């Protein structure tokens, strides 16, 4: 398969983790005789610095003319400490999601047996957790009208949804549930918000088209507690843009690190794959950032293009790295492995499949991983 992939590595640790993801895609291309062509483009704080805009036209045009997009991270603390700043790096990502119609953000949440003790949540609670957050990505409070008054004493963010926006993502969620444990949990705040009542009405109607799938509705305040006390109850968690943003970060503690969490953002025409973690500027250039979220996003990209064998191979290589403790310091405080080493291990594992002889001692010594 030939794929042209736009690489928007962005800010902070974005470039270094995306580099590992590219390595893994190159390994897959080599083993399976695909051709993946990468083209880099600017987004975020780095784009503001170089062009004055968080999403330069050139980047948007490239994204519209590629098969898919690999995204790194966005943000810079210098904007966080200046709430008056009119231009912000994050606008680049939000505009891109909107312009490309990426309405569904899919975030798998899993407890890895080997990392079960890395989570602050009790092992008995998280063991076997396996659910997927379907977060609406083009609407809600993120994109409603925003106002502030001249004296800066009042601000508002309008939360809006229309039926079509809810319908589109809901069908994807129900279809996904049909291939899994056949349960959709709609998370909303229908006891208070009009938009949530619309979600309930629309989703309940759609559920009738999927009689094999059970629909459950849960208030977001309760859901935020249930994710921690009983995460195994979830299969597909369907929710709006803001709730999905918050709950997916919360759910990431189950896996042990946000550095493991991948995501796919899908629209009718375009697709973008990105780790859910942010720019983590403090770690930039230190070779400590966990590249697994970015690498697992590559697995989602491959699956999206029907390359299931290749996708499974990436996941298996990541699991191999985890099982052999080839992991970064977020998962093992005294780990000697950095971003690069984890990326090398995973790509080498893919390249050397079949006749791989893995020497655990070497790994522990941090010398060589594959002989
Ligand atoms: C995410 C991020 C973004 C969001 C930010 C960077 C705008 O937190 O992808 O979850 O809020 O959607
Ligand atoms: Mn987020």
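-> sequence recovered:
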């Amino acid at each position: 398969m030939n794929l042209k992939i736009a690489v928007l590595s962005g800010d902070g640790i974005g470039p270094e983790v995306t580099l590992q993801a590219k390595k893994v895609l190159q390994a897959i291309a080599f083993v399976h005789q695909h051709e993946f062509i990468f083209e880099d483009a600017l987004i975020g704080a780095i784009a503001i610095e170089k062009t004055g805009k968080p999403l330069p036209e050139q980047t948007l045009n490239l994204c519209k003319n590629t098969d898919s997009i690999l995204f790194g991270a966005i943000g810079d603390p210098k904007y966080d400490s200046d709430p008056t700043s009119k231009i912000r790096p994050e606008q680049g990502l939000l505009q891109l999601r909107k312009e490309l119609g990426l309405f569904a953000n899919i975030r798998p949440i899993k407890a890895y047996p080997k990392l079960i003790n890395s989570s602050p949540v009790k092992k008995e609670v998280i063991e076997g957790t396996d659910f997927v957050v379907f977060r609406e990505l083009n609407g809600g409070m993120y994109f409603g009208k925003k106002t502030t008054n001249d004296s800066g004493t009042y601000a508002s963010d309008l939360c809006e949804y229309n039926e079509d926006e809810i319908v589109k993502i809901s069908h994807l969620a129900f279809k996904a549930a049909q291939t899994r444990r056949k349960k959709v949990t709609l998370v909303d705040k229908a006891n208070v918000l009009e938009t949530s009542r619309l979600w309930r009405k629309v989703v309940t109607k759609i559920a009738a088209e999927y009689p094999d799938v059970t629909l459950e509705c849960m208030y977001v305040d309760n859901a935020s507690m249930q994710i921690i006390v009983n995460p195994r109850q979830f299969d597909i968690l369907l929710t709006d843009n803001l709730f999905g943003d918050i709950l997916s970060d919360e759910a990431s503690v189950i896996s042990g690190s946000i550095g493991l969490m991948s995501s796919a953002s899908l629209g009718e025409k375009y697709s973008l794959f990105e780790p859910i973690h942010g720019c983590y500027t403090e770690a930039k250039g230190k070779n400590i950032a966990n590249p697994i979220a970015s690498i697992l996003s590559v697995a989602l990209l491959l699956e999206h293009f029907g390359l299931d064998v290749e996708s499974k191979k990436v996941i298996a290589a990541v699991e191999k790295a985890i099982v052999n403790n080839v992991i970064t310091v977020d998962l093992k405080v005294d780990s000697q492995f950095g971003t690069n080493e984890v990326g090398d291990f995973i790509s080498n594992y893919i390249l050397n499949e079949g006749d791989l002889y893995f020497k655990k001692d070497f790994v522990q010594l941090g010398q060589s991983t594959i002989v």
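DSSP finds 14 helices and twelve strands in the chain.
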